[in-house]
Amino acid sequence: MGFFSLNQEIAMDLGTANTIIISDDKIVVDEPSVVALDRNNKMIAVGEKAKMMHEKTNPDIRTIRPLRDGVIADFSACEQMMRGLIKMVHSGNRLFSPSMKMVIGVPSGSTEVELRAVRDSAEHADGRDVYLIFEPMAAAVGIGLDVEAPEGNMVVDIGGGTTEIAVISLGGIVTNNSIKVAGDDLTSDIQNYMSRQHNVKVSERMAERIKIHVGSALTDLGEEAPEDFVVHGPNKITALPMEVPVCYQEIAHCIDRTVASIETAVLNALENTPPELYADIVKNGIWLTGGGALLRGLAKRLTDKFNITFHVAEDPLRSVAKGAGIALKNVDRFSFLMR
């Protein structure tokens, strides 16, 4: 392997909340999808550094999450973010940035225009050979399912901006349902609830912390119940500091409607599944991936509701990236990659 071919192939899960890059079979970048720009739209920071500035900026700096609902909402910011994150891969003393072969995970509900936008951003960030792969397909490959077998497998990928539900057989997506309801909605449910119920203002980051510490899809977790989480923030009316302990049952109630929308989407996908594949799914169970798969009690709630076993993938946050990494090695073999 010559010097010039070093790290010229990368796989990327370009997510609403986090972007993960794999190179040489290793996860080399796992950073929040945030970029900080100055007044002249020049990039100051990207990833974790930019996230630390989020909601703490002055008028000369703005932090942007370029993806909303799994789709690029701000092209130039997305390009700058991709460049910044790719630079982290090539952190050696390079005099040049190589043109790269890339495989990028995209939501399965993407329109032609949205796919074109991802491809253009990748090409502007030095991508030479750009392949796209639908996220549920990438997640299935990343979990280790044999996607090319004549057998039905169902994957529910709950990310930051979208929930992707797909039935896969013979290397293709048979039915898919992509909804713009996911982790970000759970976070905003918590923000609204804290404001309405406890009169306390919480930032997006604090709501995210509440979700991680006491988020739950069930009101009864038994022995797995987490301890209450103490929220600090200003009173909405008096602006004086407050301390509010929050228990997981409260959060389960406040996010119930969003979780129910995900259930409805799973039901729709199952209704549209051909009977032979449906039988395979009942036998194999359904796989949960993405950050949302980590929500306490979610797999149990879905298993009880549908009477089909729901499994949480081993490393749900990275399933799509791992699958994109495997696809990168098999671009000639996998017919489901899009050029």
What percentage of the residues does DSSP assign to strands (E)?
Answer: 25-35%
Tally of alpha and pi helices: 11
Largest pleated sheet: 5 strands, mixed
Helix amount, in percent? Answer: 25-40%
| DSSP strand count | 17
Class of secondary structure makeup: alpha/beta
Low-confidence stretches: 1-5
Give short descriptive properties of this protein:
disordered N terminus; five-stranded mixed beta sheet; 11 helices; flat; 339 residues; alpha/beta
Q: How do the strands and helices of this protein lay out in sequence?
A:
Elements: E1 9-14, E2 18-23, E3 26-32, E4 35-37, E5 43-46, H1 48-53, E6 62-64, E7 67-68, E8 71-72, H2 75-89, E9 100-106, H3 112-124, E10 127-134, H4 135-143, E11 153-158, E12 163-169, E13 172-179, H5 183-198, H6 204-214, E14 229-234, E15 241-246, H7 248-254, H8 256-271, H9 275-284, E16 286-289, H10 298-306, E17 310-312, H11 319-329
Parallel strand pairs: 1-9, 9-10, 11-16, 16-17
Antiparallel strand pairs: 1-2, 2-3, 4-5, 4-6, 7-8, 11-12, 12-13, 14-15
Helix pairs in contact: 2-3, 4-11, 5-6
Structural commentary:
With 339 residues, this protein is α/β, with parallel strands linked by helices. Helices cover 36% and strands 26% of the residues. It is built from eleven helices and 17 strands. It is flat. The two termini are 26 Å apart. The relative contact order is 0.15. The N terminus is likely disordered.
